[in-house]
Give the backbone structure.
Amino acid sequence: MARRSQIWLLGLYFLLELPLILAIRSSQSLALLRARDQCGRELTAGQRLLLDRMQFEDAPHVRHYLHCFWSRLQLWQDDSGFQAQRIVQSFGGERRLNVEQALPAINGCNAKTRFRGSGSGMGSVVDWCFRAFVCVLATPVGEWYKRHMSDVINGNA
């Protein structure tokens, strides 16, 4: 009888704690999903599927989607690029990312890809965001991002 009570109490504990655990994880995940949905409104089902599979081809719809996504999250600024420190904080800080690796990777990609050519205006900013994002994807930070977004999309984060 005591064992049954212990199991019941343990089950009750997890039942009561589960909403708290989900609430901690869900605010950031919900923000990512909300930005994803808002920025993907005009995408076709096929385009959305490729983006969900982390396939970012060099195409206008991908460039505009990425700029919209990161801007909505307030992790991209048109005058300075990706906000490396805010990205690290938004994605769990030192608990989840190697900060010594992430900050230089993101900042380096911002600098390396900033406005090529003589173009100016929104198109250049959108292109810069795309190039910087693709650059970050080629780093360990990009691998972490792909795994994390897959977890968010699949309801595991």
Notes: The mean pLDDT is 83.
